[in-house]
Structure formats: structure tokens, C-alpha cells
Prior knowledge:
The protein is α+β, with helices and mostly antiparallel strands. It has twelve helices and ten strands.
Amino acid sequence: xxxxxxxxxxxxxxxxxxxxxxxxxxxxxxxxxxxxxxxxxxxxxxxxxxxxxxxxxxxxxxxxxxxxxxxxxxxxxxxxxxxxxxxxxxxxxxxxxxxxxxxxxxxxxxxxxxxxxxxxxxxxxxxxxxxxxxxxxxxxxxxxxxxxxxxxxxxxxxxxxxxxxxxxxxxxxxxxxxxxxxxxxxxxxxxxxxxxxxxxxxxxxxxxxxxxxxxxxxxxxxxxxxxxxxxxxxxxxxxxxxxxxxxxxxxxxxxxxxxxxxxxxxxxxxxxxxxxxxxxxxxxxxxxxxxxxxxxxxxxxxxxxxxxxxxxxxxxxxxxxxxxxxxxxxxxxxxxxxxxxxxxxxxxxxxxxxxxxxxxxxxxxxxxxxxxxxxxxxxxxxxxxxxxxxxxxxxxxxxxxxxxxxxxxxxxxxxxxxxxxxxxxxxxxxxxxxxxxxxxxxxxxxxxxxxxxxxxxxxxxxxxxxxxxxxxxxxxxxxxxxxxxxxxxxxxxxxxxxxxxxxxxxxxxxxxxxxxxxxxxxxxxxxxxxxx
Length: 532
């Protein structure tokens, strides 16, 4: 009875202590998150962007005499005539094309051997003979093509010196077109400025990128739904909210912001042709979401709020360094993915761009597994069955995520090759965006389910057990007189459902008549044992 009375009197103090420790745990988790947000914004700023179906010559060097360069890949989508609508064709536009010498001055002599062309990419090597692609006289000539059926779909624009060239042409066949800059004359050390663009019937988005627009509309709705569900859980169980739930809310906010940014940037690109600022913001938010998620996993695997009340300074530094390295190693991959479909890099370059993030991710995966194993052993030592389940579930989720990431990386390499025809354009969006977003959302919902706010989850069980041990030790050391006994008898019949329950499987608190032993019973047993 004396122990029961002490438990009743200690409730307000224990509640305040729990809130203080929860605040300390939240601060410990958010410190590296805040630093990583700043780091991710700085790192993502180096990512180049492809401006839809527009290629800009920014004082680029013209190829040397009798040579050509392949600059870009356009994905043109022509709508064939049907009963419901007339045929619509992409429009090739050349704007303000100008050739000058290396110093930037206008060339004095007339020279018309520089041409900008779009060639069907799948027949490129059938149309271009590497040993004889320049025809005409000397010193001036023009690009010549081999006799092949797809020659009918080629568009050539001559850019003479001393003039500004602007014109439009139609592209009559759906497909991938290579932008080629050729110099079939004898002059060298020339520069070119201006833009070449392709506008599809629906807008400026490339044909293989158009399906991303509706995809991110649905992804935005999914993130919004996750946010509403999580907010409702936090409000309904606000007394059990701890740092893990706040961190998960931050991940949802960053994921929602990323999907909105992608939808907005793709919409802007489709209507105006260029949106470098919006595209950069989308990439920045992608990096930020990934670093926040990695920080959450690292902090949770170290047992913050379950087996550890506070992470030491060394652990925080390790987390900060580890996640920053992950962000740095992901930059080459992000840069390549943003341009891969437009430039068709070699396989060796793709592997080298993915290798750093793969190596760093593998080491961090091993590190997290070791942290989880340590936290599981500690949970067993403390008899924290519910906490042990949390770590086991985190381990399962992490393993599935890692295998999925490797699968997406390999699938994207072999199933999402650039320059593929229109029959693969939906597949490109599936591998480049759909699978990634699907894995992230499934992982998010699984984490939300397993880590839903609960009194027997993060913090509560660990701190209650520590508080119970301290109180029982203090009570057994103090002599108990008759006055204490009388007061205990008076308070004995006034137990309520707010009593803390100690240990075990994280059983919920029971009122009178419950099937589980109450706190005063456990305390009395501990007291009897100590007196004996």
C-alpha cells in the first residue's frame, strides 16, 4: 500500500520527466536532420538540367572542317489522324542561330557549310557514312546522307555566316531524333549561338517524359493521403508522440514537397519549354528527402528513445558524416539521370556514376544492421519485448528497401536505356520514376503502420521501467511507519486507470478488475522480497 501511494504521488513528476526526456530525444534527432537539409540543398545545386525539348547553343564551338558532332536527342511524338481528331505533328524550331569567329565577331566572308540537322536515331549509322558524309564543292560543302527510307524524315537547317537564321519545320514521324551540328567546309575556329527546339502537340515535354506529369499528380495525392493519416494519428494519440513520429512527419512533408515540385516543374516545362529553377528545386528536395530518411533510420537503429535516452556527440558526428557522404556520392548519379535520356552516355560512364552511391550505401547498410543488432541485444537484456519488435521490423523494412534499391538500379540500367522507340516510353517512366516512388511510398506506409504512436513503443516502456526501478529502490531504503501505513490504506481503494504498468510485453494499463497485475501488486511483491 505504501508503494502504491508513492506511485500515485509520483505521477505528475514522472509525466514531466517523460516530456523532458522526449524533448531531449527529439532535439538529438533533429540536430543532424537540420544540418543535412542545408547540406543537401548545397550539394544538389551542382546538378545540370535538360531544358525539355530545347537545346541552347551558348557560344559553342563549331566542329572542325569536314566533321560533325551529335549534340542531343529529341523525342518527337506525332498524333496520327483518327475519327476524333486531325493529325498533329511536332514542330522543329530554330531561333536566332548565328555563327561567328572565335573572337565573337561576325564573319566577313560568306560561308554556308554549317548545318544543323535532325536525323532518326535508330537509323543514324545507316544514313551517315563516317568516311563520306560531306558533299559539294571545295571550300564549301554540305552534309550528304545515304539512300535509306528514313532519309525522308531528316530536317536540315543551313546557318550561313553574317545572318541570323530562324525557321520552323514539321516532324512527320514519331521517334527519337539526333541533333547534329556539321561543318562540311574548310573553315575552323567558329562559334554558334541560338536555340533548337521541338514542340510536341501536347507541349514541350519530350515524348518519353510526358507520362511523368500524370504520374506525379497521383504521387502527390498519395503523399497528401499519407500526411493526413499521419496527422490524424498524431492528434489522436498526442500523449504517445515522440521524436520518431515527428521525424517521420518531416519525411512526409519533404516527400510531399518533392512530388509537388516535380509536378509543377514538369507542367511549367510542358507549357513554356524551360524551367531550370523549378527542376533544380525538385532535385534538391529529392536529395533532402533521401538524406532525412537515412538519418531517421540511423538514429532509430541506434536506439534513441528506446535503449538510449540521448545520443552522444560522437554518434551525432558519425550520423552527420555518414549521411553527408551519401548525399555527395549521390550527386554523380543524379547528374547523369537528369541528362541520360538526352545524351545517351556509354555504359561504363553509367556504371562509374552509380558506383559511389552503391559503395557508400552498402557500407551504411552494414553499419545500420550492426546498430540494429546491438539495440536488439540491449532490448533483450532490458526485457523490452515491444522495443525488440520495433527493431526487428526496422530490420525487415531496411532489408526490403536495400534489395529494392539494388533492383531498381539494375533494372534502370538494363530496362531503361536511352534512345529507345515510342513503345518503350511508358517503360522509361515506370523504371525512372514509378518504381522508385512506389518503393518509397510502400516503405513509408509500412513504417507508419509499425511505428504508429503507442504508449508501449518508443520512449514509454524504457523510461517507465527506469522510473519504476528508481522509485522502488528509494522506497525500500526508507523506513515505513504506521502513519505511512494508514495513509496507504486510505489511498488503497482509489486506484485508477492512469497507473503505470511495469515491464513485460508492454501491456496496456488496466483498471479495476483487469486481467494483468497492477502497479501496486508488483510494487508490493518487490517490497516483500526486499524485506525478506
